[in-house]
Amino acid sequence: MNTQKHFTLLKTCDNARAGELNTPHGKIPTPVFMPVGSQATVKTLTPEDVKSLGFNMILTNTYHLYLRPGVDVVKKLGGLHDFMGWGGAILTDSGGYQVFSLSPLCKITDEGVKFRSHIDGSEHFLTPELAVKYQEALGADVIMVLDECSAYGDAKEKIQKAMDRTHRWAKRCLKSHKTKNQALYAIVQGGMFPDLRKASAEYLTQLDFPGYAIGGLSVGEPKDVTFPLIEQTTALLPPAKPRYLMGVGAPEDLVEGVARGIDMFDCALPTRVARNGALYTRQGRVNIRRAIYSKIDKPIDPSCDCYTCRTFSAAYLNHLFRAEELLALRLATNHNLRFLNNLMKDIRSAIMDGTFDRFAKSFLKTYQTTNEQTRVAQKGKWLKGRK
Amino acid sequence: MNTQKHFTLLKTCDNARAGELNTPHGKIPTPVFMPVGSQATVKTLTPEDVKSLGFNMILTNTYHLYLRPGVDVVKKLGGLHDFMGWGGAILTDSGGYQVFSLSPLCKITDEGVKFRSHIDGSEHFLTPELAVKYQEALGADVIMVLDECSAYGDAKEKIQKAMDRTHRWAKRCLKSHKTKNQALYAIVQGGMFPDLRKASAEYLTQLDFPGYAIGGLSVGEPKDVTFPLIEQTTALLPPAKPRYLMGVGAPEDLVEGVARGIDMFDCALPTRVARNGALYTRQGRVNIRRAIYSKIDKPIDPSCDCYTCRTFSAAYLNHLFRAEELLALRLATNHNLRFLNNLMKDIRSAIMDGTFDRFAKSFLKTYQTTNEQTRVAQKGKWLKGRK
Predict the structure, then answer these.
(1) Which pLDDT belongs to residue A374?
(2) For residue A320, what are the domain limits?
(3) What is the ipTM score, two decimals?
(4) Structural domain total, chain A
(5) Is A161 in the same domain as A252?
(6) Nearest to B318 by CA among B338, B340, B291, B284
(7) Are residues A224 and A280 in the same domain?
(8) pLDDT band at residue A385, thresholds of 50, 70 and 90?
(9) pLDDT (tens digit per residue) in A327-381
């Protein structure tokens, strides 16, 4: 893997960076938000929709696809791109996070992790080598090392142990990685402890991966803990390599992440909240189910260029949500993803123009952050998974 | 209403007819199948999708829209077409069938029908005059009289009483109908009794409606009862007026209906079974959830030109259904509706060419009919509604 070719840093603006990922499925301008399609589908949307929303790269999940329909099935059907009809780039998560958060039982040894399927309870064993092998078979453009995920609130000693194992596993992943056209990223761990994050970033940097992810953040901790940790970690990562902040995608967090040197994001939140009727506007999130929208004959965001806003009134969306119509979920997903794509484009333009700082301040001043109940729910689920 | 203008009969082929409806929202070639969008949305699809599938006319439901979001709301938002973003023609059912089948309680007098909302239990009163008024406010191109629906298995005397009331109501609907650009259709009732059907057709014909529907069929009775009744009824209806068979839409029934002189159909079945994974092919219905499809790297119907078949393998669809992904519902709906649109086009071409009889025989020979469990379910629901 020629790591120089995988990423080009084009411009910086303080810590914010504009660049370009070079993948077998096209060049991806960064900073980039990747919609989540865990089960080889971005919920409610066709690949054609996702493309027309402006996205060139999505995320799918090895854990989910390994369990259903099976890695071998996807491979025989021509790999992930052919299977799901997506011509853009794909990043597969290794499944580490899902094993720890979804499996009703998981047992970790140095060799790997034994877990049960959340679908049928069947027992499985995943090692760093198998995680790489499965991702090579799926055929994504960017693949991830297997990591051991800690839970927010775990003792430092426990987190350090998990981090050390993540490091040993990263080395094994790198060693077993055979394909030339897939970029294998490492994952920096270390919980909420700056010294552990520093140790993790330093250890993984010397292994020379083509890209670095930051894992284990946005798992329930307050944001005044998250943001300094991101900033400290990116400062220790090689500038020539892309930095990927896993599982973060609320609009304000994208701006804050870019301001701290992040190039790539993924998150199920924007599409999940859409299906609950929470729609993004530059003024903040609105709940389309509220009665005040039932008679509004204007789009939810008159400045938005998405199909939903160009075609339907807030009143019609309100009706679809209240009537529990399936189209509601699709139109809302369409809107939120277009919002994020437009936001990332604006962010990138501002970086290229050298005005990112002004843009970020203006956006964060206007955008009303909401009580992120989804995060709390996520945390609850996460802790439930830790038996 | 100039009834000559509303429908033009272009060609007959034995009893089968090809014609054209003239509506304020375009000319509609007949025979036509109208997708059902009860709540002002064809489930899972955008109006753009419905149009690109080839449809120019859909059905929505007065009962549903009266209860939610309310007729006044839709009217203030510019009427049904603007509200749902649909530029084609719309037929609204009066809500008679839904009052009888969905309301937990309904009480009929000559004046009208008192019923409870299936949503919140609130009490409502619907009269023939109100049914017309609501449909005029919604703004559909074709509107329906309020009828009293009988249940399959009711005694003849009861059915005759309901039919007589339906006739009195039809007269009142006609009298109260004010708008010039909406065609009001009558509904022939009379249960499974040929003499009642005859009486109903004759009575309503002399009132000179621009179109005639046949109601109360396909409600659980065997098909060897349905088909002769359709044939006997259409024989009594004026050839210059369109005939609409309500609630019928299985592929084989469309062919059989056209063969007996029907011009218009609607049915929720094709989209409902799609959401259960039952997909139409010219060989019959297949269940995409079956394990045999999990590894098939070909479309479900290689001869089909729909987006689903052009883009995805049967294996991918099987995966989406098994993984309970929302996209599955949309792709299956897309396929079944395209199948029906293609079928209606082929039927019409065959009529125009004078070869419908051959087409129908060939289609019915190849198409394997299935055990229509949906009908039985429908019947159960229907009877449950009759308290």
Answers:
(1) 39
(2) 274-366
(3) 0.94
(4) 2
(5) yes
(6) B291
(7) no
(8) very low
(9) 999 999 999 999 999 999 999 999 999 999 999 999 999 998 764 433 333 333 3
B159 and B179 together in one domain: yes
Which of B147, B263, B266, B301 is labelled catalytic?
A: B266
Tokens of B3: 């009834």
Q: Which residues of chain A does B85 touch, with a Cβ-Cβ cutoff of 8 Å?
A: 311-312, 316
d(CA B129, CA B170): 10
Query: In the prediction, which pLDDT does B304 show?
Result: 97
pLDDT band (50, 70, 90) for residue A259: very high
* Residue A34, C-beta contacts closer than 8 angstroms, at least 6 positions apart: A55, A57, A58, A59, A91, A264, A265, A266
Same domain, A36 and A164: yes
Average pLDDT over residues A220-245: 96
A136-175 residues touching B, CB cutoff 8 A: none
Q: What angle do CA A351, A354, A356 make, to 5 degrees?
A: 50
Q: Are residues B12 and B157 in the same domain?
A: yes
Q: Tell me which of B254 and A377 has the higher pLDDT.
A: B254
pLDDT at B381: 37
What average pLDDT does the segment B64-75 reach?
Answer: 98
Do B201 and B56 reside in the same domain of the chain?
yes
Question: pLDDT value at position A120?
Answer: 94
A326 and B323: CB-CB below 8 Å? no
Using a CB–CB cutoff of 8 Å, tell me whether A297 touches chain B. yes
Contact A77 B46 (CB under 8 A): no
Residues of A whose CB is below 8 A from B331 = 46
3-state secondary structure chain A: CCHHHHEEEEEEECCEEEEEEEECCEEEEECEEECECCCCCCCCCCHHHHHHCCCCEEEEEHHHHHHCCCHHHHHHCCHHHHHHCCCCEEEEECCHHHHHHHCCCEEECCCCEEEECCCCCCEEEECHHHHHHHHHHHCCCEEECCCCCCCCCCCHHHHHHHHHHHHHHHHHHHHHCCCCCCEEEEEECCCCCHHHHHHHHHHHHHCCCCEEEECCCCCCCCHHHHHHHHHHHHHHCCCCCCEEECCCCCHHHHHHHHHCCCCEEECCHHHHHHHCCEEEECCEEEECCCHHHHHCCCCCCCCCCCHHHHHCCHHHHHHHHHCCCHHHHHHHHHHHHHHHHHHHHHHHHHHHHCCHHHHHHHHHHHCECCCCHHHHHHHHHHHHHCC
Residues B284, B368: contact at Cβ < 8 Å?
yes
User: According to the model, what pLDDT value does residue B60 have?
Assistant: 98
Tens digit of each residue's pLDDT (9 = 90 or more) over B146-201: 999 988 999 999 999 999 999 999 999 999 999 999 999 999 999 999 999 999 99
pLDDT at B382 over 60: no
